[in-house]
Amino acid sequence: YNLDNLSVVKKLINVSKKKIKIGSNVKIKFVKDRPGHDRRYALNSNKIINQIKWKRKTNINDGLSKTVKWYIKNQQYFKQDGL
Question: Mind giving me the DSSP string for 18-64?
């Protein structure tokens, strides 16, 4: 299914609140130089679904949760010099 970027960000905030302490008044900042440009990105997966019967293994909520967990667990990765 398709989600616009704002919906994904809101889901990410909700998932993050369950994993780490963040303020209840989180603000989403819209960048002025790209109004409307990032409304959504979409991929058409019909070809891979039809040709090899591909199915996603993880839904969006579980995927975001696993991603946030990985980032929390691997913070040292981002503290390396040059990153």
Answer: HHS---SS--PPPPTT-TTTTS------HHHHHHH----SS-HHHHH
